Amino acid sequence: MTSYYPPITYIVPPDEDGWLLKTILQKRMDVSRKLLSRLKMTDLGITLNGERVYISVKVSSGDRVEIRMEEETSEDILPQPIPFEILYEDGHLLVVNKAAGIIVHPTHGHYTETLANGVVHYWAEKGERVRFRPVHRLDQETSGVLVIAKNPYSHQHISEQMIAGTVDKRYAAFVHGVPAVQSGDIDGPIDRDPLEPHRRIVTPDGYPSLTRYEVKEVYPRAASRVELKLESGRTHQIRVHMSSIGCPLIGDGMYRHPLYARVQALGGLAPPVSGEREAGLVLPGGEAQEAGLTLLGGERQEAELSPEEAAQLAEIAELDASIPRQALHAVRLSFRHPVTHAELVFEAPLPPDMALLQAKLRETGALE
């Protein structure tokens, strides 16, 4: 026996009396052509007052139009009891607060211990047959609000809102340095780095990408807290854009402060990306400096790396070592419910590691 997701219902108003059912489905219920074709092949996919009909029929005022989608499961995803925080759930969507360190969806070579494994297990325990459909993604080391659609209709509608730019996605980040202006736009096309395809770079030939930012707090230790709003959704967008203006995220091992590259170019060794502070920072030339740097062989070449730069890099390395991932959190997400059209707003407070970083940065007092 075929099982269905909860039906989506539309009551025909008087001013739409005589419309074609197909028009109601496409113009009022926003059913895409792809989904419409799928519904037509399903026994109870499209009904009018409880009866299966052709979409070419005309409707009358007060008629009840319903669409039903067959239940699906993610048979390619192994259910695992992985804990996650639920912010909201109904028959159409699930909103979670993703923890840092967990991948959203299984990938090549990483088939288990993902958010998808945990969500599929959770639904199976509830007896729900639902396919895992994340509407958007967060990087493995980025935490925060993430929405998952529970059926194709919901996925289509929220995705369309994202494409239209009506979904409000806001992030909190702690960055090295302070942007030159208090608030502004970073409008830099993004594409793959041809030398390192897993990285992204700002390049004139890239895909249009826009990030809006506002500085919320400035700290004496050459760092600041910024709020960011995405107007596009490129891979690593915030990390790439903030790095491009000289303010990389604290703890980001991929898009690091340019002084690290200086060290490597001079033949030194940069600290590990995992935040293991005890490994130290190794630079070429001279003796260990008071800033906490370990230098390699020979006399220091001041023209290559000044004492001020060495001290600055020591401070940067210490901040990077204080958090084991990039300090980025999806703090807020708002959009229209795909069925009720109510405006939904979800917020997630800073996770413990970022809250601790903020406390450390505030120890000597924040600057307004």
Brief overview:
This protein has helices spanning 21-28, 33-40, 115-126, 152-164, 237-244, 258-265, 307-321, 352-362, and strands spanning 8-11, 46-48, 51-52, 64-67, 85-89, 93-98, 133-134, 143-149, 168-176, 183-187, 190-192, 200-202, 210-219, 223-230, 282-284, 294-296, 328-336, 343-347. With 368 residues, the protein is of the alpha+beta class.
Throw out a few tags for this protein.
single chain, 368 residues, alpha+beta, Structural Genomics Hypothetical 15.5 Kd Protein In mrcA-pckA Intergenic Region, Chain A, ten-stranded mixed β-sheet, four-stranded antiparallel β-sheet, 8 helices, 18 strands, 23% helix, EC 5.4.99.-, RluA_PseudoU_synthase, isomerase, PsdUridine_synth_RluC/D, PsdUridine_synth_RsuA/RluA
Can you give a write-up of this model?
- The active site is at 139.
- It comes from Paenibacillus borealis.
- Belongs to the pseudouridine synthase RluA family.
- This protein has 368 residues and is an alpha+beta fold.
- Among the domains are: 8-67, Structural Genomics Hypothetical 15.5 Kd Protein In mrcA-pckA Intergenic Region, Chain A, CATH 3.10.290.10; 258-321, no CATH class.
- The chain is 23% helix and 25% strand.
- The protein is built from eight helices and 18 strands.
- It has helices at residues 21-28, 33-40, 115-126, 152-164, 237-244, 258-265, 307-321, 352-362; strands at 8-11, 46-48, 51-52, 64-67, 85-89, 93-98, 133-134, 143-149, 168-176, 183-187, 190-192, 200-202, 210-219, 223-230, 282-284, 294-296, 328-336, 343-347.
- Strands 5, 6, 7, 8, 9, 10, 13, 14, 17 and 18 form a ten-stranded mixed β-sheet that branches. The protein has a four-stranded antiparallel β-sheet with strand order 1-4-2-3, with helices on one face.
- The longest helix has 15 residues, at 307-321.
- Residues 272-303 have low confidence and may be disordered.
